[in-house]
């Protein structure tokens, strides 16, 4: 604040308007733009410094800010009207004592009680000189200390806000996922309700949906919902139990961390060294076991290859045995058939032998008589067949005559 006030006081009107006009006319447009940009930059820097000082004063002792706005208003009026009484405002504002904490960082970070005890001593010295830019000033080192302290506070607040924002983001994300699941469940329920109740439950005769279908569907849906609620309750109780256990473990660890002593760290260090030595031994044993496992795997692969070859040979032998068995069965069937045929042929052979043994050559005259009888019989058969044909023709003609007569009558 003192920096901005000293800047205002340095710009206190001590030259005439004609001189300022002449200086402005002497500079070029580029120089004027450059000076304006520099002034804007200085204003930004002073505004930032004033914000830092105001935050520091608000954090340390908010009562120091009483009267600052009146001082700024008075400086503005003083810049426009130089005939005002400066001493009256200084006397009215010396009781506020808001500039004492800016003399050094050690005073700014001191307790309010120490500041209040030194107000009376520095009131006359500060009040008479601060309005004209000759009061206490803050050097670069003190400014850097104030800015670094304020930056640490801002970074701490920013980290807290980041954590809070991360928690809020996670909460909102979980809520969005929950809403998406709810929307999906509602859409599925709507489609299922429309399909089972509205479409399939429509009674074409009564032109309405029977109440029994709706009640049955709602009862089934309520049963399914009760089962899901039971599962969710069980899961929630499980999660609450796990949360309580973790909370208890965290509390126990916090209590243990409060009662830790250097001896405990030495003890843990010794235990860690013992564990490391045990781990090294186990790693060596693991390496040896890996080596043994590699040798065993190599031997196993060799035996496995030999076993696969034996299995292939065994499968070939089994297939040959099955094929031979099938051939044996077919040969047995053929043998049975051949034996049956041989028995039948043997019987025929015996009959032929018996017939041959009992056969006698007939007499020639008997043969001639038998042939003559056969010829006579064939002739009589032909005559009888001709008679039968003639009778059938006569029968058919009589039948036609009878049919014709019956139709005429």
TrEMBL record:
One of its GO terms (biological process) is cilium assembly. GO terms for cellular component: axoneme; ciliary basal body. Residues 225-395 form the CCDC113/CCDC96 coiled-coil domain. It is found in: Cell projection, Cilium. The keyword Coiled coil applies. Keywords: Cell projection, Cilium biogenesis/degradation, Coiled coil. Residues 29-56, 155-196 form a coiled coil. The keyword Coiled coil applies. Its main location: other. Pfam families: CCDC113_CCDC96_CC. PANTHER family: COILED-COIL DOMAIN-CONTAINING PROTEIN 113, COILED-COIL DOMAIN-CONTAINING PROTEIN 113-RELATED. Belongs to the CFAP263 family. This is Cilia- and flagella-associated protein 263. The lineage of its organism: Eukaryota, Metazoa, Ecdysozoa, Arthropoda, Hexapoda.
